[in-house]
Amino acid sequence: MTPLNIRLATDNDQPGWDNYVSSNPAAGPYYLYAWKTAVEKGYGHKGLYLMAEDTDSGFVVGVLPLICFCLPWGRKSLVSLPYCDYGGLIGELSVQQALIREGQRLAGELGVYRMEIRCSQEHSNLLAQEGVSGQVISHKVSMILSLPASSDALWSGFKAKLKSQIRRPEKEGLRGYMGGPELLEDFYRVFTINMHELGSPVHAFKWFKAVLSAYNDKAKVGMIYLKNEEPVATGIVLFNGQRVCIPWASSLRKYNRSAPNMLLYWQFLSWAAENGYSEFDFGRSTPGEGTYRFKKQWGARPEQLYWYKLGLDGEKIDCSDSVSKGRGTAARVWQYLPSCIADLVGPRVRKYISL
């Protein structure tokens, strides 16, 4: 076995970290060091990014990005990664095992009661660690679309019904734009309204500002406007290697008849194809539900997600449906809050929700 040096990455290690994850097909945009920077600046949670180096060459051979997620009453967990679909271990099996052992040691040092490792691939070795009890949640999937070399080729592969749905908003005069931080206020206006209607606390404006700043030229904001320049649909995409991800997208329900969401996604997909990306990640869904069907109509295929919840020092892990049922009740209550209260309180609550 190659001798390894496992240590916490510093800001000076960002180029080496990013070079490694950008060259690894298992890594998407969330693995970039920018996610650590955004989480720290946007919400104040501490990033603890473990990197494994070959002792002889000094090259990075594996990573485990962790965020110390601290709740208001003091309980801490290590999450890889919060606010997105996946993080987890990258590297050969022996490197993974060394990284997770170091993660456990670090957890003990910090007084952390559990770890949550969200993976886009199966890592059954996580449940076999000494002193760890845990479960895996695997009922969610990522919806991935393979992209051709051009938007024309992508368009020609769509069914007639899908093409008609994309043309509809254009015929009604809706127009799309791609940009950066200059579109953030319009993005947040739409996003805030949509989250309230869904019954979900909204992310802080500061969070999105931190994401765009940290990702810089690896992030884009997409907007759809009516003729009168009112923003009606929006999203943010992040990209790395060959993959584009869309972690956040929203549209205003009262304009659903005009299908602005269809134009928004077509804008992102055509941009990704024209800029040489080979995969578009629509994000996580539950098979059979509405968002799953929406993503599938574009030709996306499901890829299993594996979220490992690991209890440390005797901590018991509960992955039952009771938590999901509780969320449903909370969502219904949140929908009835006045917008002014939801918009004020939402970001303060959202900081502590790792999903």
Layout of strands and helices, then pairs:
Elements: E1 4-8, H1 14-22, H2 33-43, E2 46-54, E3 60-70, E4 76-80, E5 90-91, H3 93-110, E6 114-119, E7 132-137, E8 141-146, H4 151-156, H5 160-171, E9 175-179, H6 184-198, H7 205-215, E10 219-225, E11 231-240, E12 243-251, H8 260-274, E13 279-285, H9 290-296, E14 301-304, E15 306-312, H10 322-335, H11 339-350
Parallel strand pairs: 4-6, 12-13
Antiparallel strand pairs: 1-2, 2-3, 3-4, 3-5, 6-15, 7-15, 8-13, 8-14, 9-10, 10-11, 11-12
Question: What characteristics describe this protein?
Answer:
single chain, alpha+beta, Aminopeptidase, 2 domains, eight-stranded mixed beta sheet, 11 helices, globular
Largest sheet, strands/sense/barrel? 8 strands, mixed
Contiguous uncertain segments of 5+ residues: none
Task: Quickly name the level 1 CATH class of the largest domain.
Answer: Alpha Beta
Could you tell me the strand content as a percent range? 25-35%
Describe this structure in words.
- The chain is an alpha+beta fold and 355 residues long.
- The chain has two domains: 4-139 and 305-326, Aminopeptidase (3-Layer(aba) Sandwich), CATH 3.40.630; 142-301, Gcn5-related N-acetyltransferase (GNAT) (Aminopeptidase), CATH 3.40.630.
- It has eleven helices and 15 strands.
- A hairpin with a 5-residue loop joins strand 3 and strand 4.
- Helix 2 (33-43) runs antiparallel to helix 7 (205-215) and helix 5 (160-171) packs across helix 8.
- The two termini are 37 Å apart.
